[in-house]
């Protein structure tokens, strides 16, 4: 899966109808397989306890409704959402929405049993009571409802706060009727990754405390590039069940281009990848709280508005944004092509290569096991200075993969990547 996450309230006029043929063709040009529309199920709005306006997508008011403000005609809002799902499917992609199984809005309208408490500072919510006899069945019915609407998967919010047996029961039940329905877990404890895959049954897990945190720490100088290898080894056979990302609605926007991090996150190993809307043009969320695009308010994101005019009207983008977009397009298209290919870490066999710094440089080779396709070599420089070296590719790997150069001359700028 290559997922595009977007808050529809911040795209164009903030309506389902803003996603037409041009927008969906644009996503397909990026290699996107699924669109995660964040903030679809109806959440609380316009109440004293609500954070911001229109409020948090994670304070659910009605699990069986969509937000009226996303529709051109409020009374037709569900039909308009179903039309969006059909358009996305016709464009060859799937639809993902949020499923929030830990808490609801303080003025929740449904019949789920609740506890009179909230987690952390989520004061706009109340926890769901899993001690009640019918809680699990009611939540499973909600999942069935959205699957019946044509939704192809759910990103499950804060699953570590939910009893695992709920998902272990509901995932196979939903998949028995909709086998291709995907369950994506927001998890943070690496020690529980295997449990959530093998015992609970999730299709994908956020690799937040693995690769994401590793790349952030490398960029900040607290860790070295060799830790990418260590994270890969630690995950081992779980790697295909990871969802890599550099941005999402919970994390800070990147404050400068880092194609080394993008190349590793999107191309190293066979994990899935998530792209957050505006990331492909370098949206920085400058001046916003904690350098994040707000999930609590209506706001204008200038980078995204320029992107929309580019998509719909053909308006040229500023040169730097156009270049960044094209590089993202090439990398993501390549990621969709090589996702099942074999992966070879070249760092060990270059530890003694003059000019190659294992602490700041990273290199790997992707190739198809059946040799039906040209192998791909990626070299990444996490350093703040340019690098020059002759990368060594073992003769045995050349024979296995079809790579023809045992010694590859490399000149690479700071924080950059070269893909051959």
Question: Can you give a write-up of this model?
Answer:
The protein is of the alpha/beta class and 420 residues long. It folds into two domains: 2-338, Glycosidases (TIM Barrel); 342-419, Immunoglobulin-like (Sandwich), CATH 2.60.40. The protein is built from eleven helices and 18 strands. The protein has an eight-stranded parallel barrel with strand order 1-2-5-8-9-10-11-12, surrounded by five helices. Strand 14 and strand 15 form a beta hairpin. The radius of gyration is 22 Å and the shape is globular. The two termini are 23 Å apart.
CATH architecture of the largest domain: Alpha-Beta Barrel
Into how many domains do the coordinates divide? 2
Give the oligomeric state of the chains in this entry, treating copies of one chain as homo and distinct chains as hetero.
Answer: single chain
CATH class of the largest domain: Alpha Beta
Which H/E pattern describes the elements? EHEEEHEEEHEHEHEHHEHEHHEEEEHEE
Query: What is the molecular shape?
Result: globular
Total number of helical segments? 11
Spatial strand arrangement across the major sheet: 1-2-5-8-9-10-11-12
Uncertain regions spanning at least 5 consecutive residues: none
Give the N-to-C terminal Cα separation: 23 Å
CATH superfamily membership of the largest domain: Glycosidases
Task: Tell me how many strands there are.
Answer: 18
Q: What is CATH's topology name of the largest domain? A: TIM Barrel
Q: In this structure, how is the largest beta sheet organized?
A: 8 strands, parallel, barrel
- The helix-and-strand class reads alpha/beta
């Amino acid at each position: 899966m290559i997922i595009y996450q977007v808050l529809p309230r911040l795209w164009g006029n903030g309506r389902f109808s803003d996603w037409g043929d041009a927008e969906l063709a644009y996503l397909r040009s990026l290699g996107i397989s699924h669109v995660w529309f964040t903030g679809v199920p109806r959440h609380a709005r316009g109440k004293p306890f609500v954070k911001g306006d229109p409020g948090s997508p994670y304070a659910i008011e009605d699990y069986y409704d969509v937000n009226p403000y996303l529709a051109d005609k409020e009374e037709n809002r569900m039909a308009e959402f179903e039309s969006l799902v059909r358009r996305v499917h016709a464009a060859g992609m799937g639809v993902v929405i949020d499923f929030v199984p830990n808490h609801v809005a303080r003025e929740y309208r449904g019949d789920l049993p609740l506890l009179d408490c909230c987690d952390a500072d989520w004061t706009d919510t109340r926890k769901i009571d899993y001690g009640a006899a019918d809680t699990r069945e009611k939540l499973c019915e909600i999942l069935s409802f959205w699957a019946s609407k044509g939704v192809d998967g759910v990103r499950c919010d804060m699953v570590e706060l939910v009893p695992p047996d709920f998902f272990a029961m509901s995932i196979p039940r939903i998949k028995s009727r909709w086998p291709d329905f995907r369950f994506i877990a927001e998890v943070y404890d690496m020690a529980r990754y295997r449990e959530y895959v093998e015992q609970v049954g999730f299709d994908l897990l956020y690799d937040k405390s693995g690769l994401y945190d590793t790349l952030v720490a490398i960029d900040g100088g607290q860790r070295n590039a060799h830790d990418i290898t260590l994270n890969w080894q630690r995950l081992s056979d779980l790697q295909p069940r990871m969802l890599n990302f550099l941005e999402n609605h919970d994390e800070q926007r990147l404050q400068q281009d880092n194609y080394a991090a993008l190349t590793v996150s999107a191309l190293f190993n066979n994990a899935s990848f998530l792209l957050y809307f505006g990331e492909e043009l370098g949206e920085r969320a400058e001046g916003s709280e904690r350098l994040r695009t707000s999930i609590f308010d209506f706001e204008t994101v200038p980078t995204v508005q320029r992107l929309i005019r580019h998509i719909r009207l053909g308006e040229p983008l500023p040169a730097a944004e156009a270049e960044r977009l094209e590089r993202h397009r090439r990398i993501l298209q390549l990621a969709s092509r090589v996702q099942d290919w074999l992966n070879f870490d070249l760092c060990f066999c270059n530890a003694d290569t003059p000019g190659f710094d294992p602490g700041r440089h990273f290199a790997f080779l992707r190739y198809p096991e059946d040799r039906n396709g040209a192998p791909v070599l990626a070299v990444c420089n996490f350093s703040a200075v340019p690098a020059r070296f002759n990368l060594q590719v073992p003769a045995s790997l050349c024979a296995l993969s079809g790579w023809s150069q045992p010694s590859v001359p490399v000149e690479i700028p700071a924080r950059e990547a070269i893909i051959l």
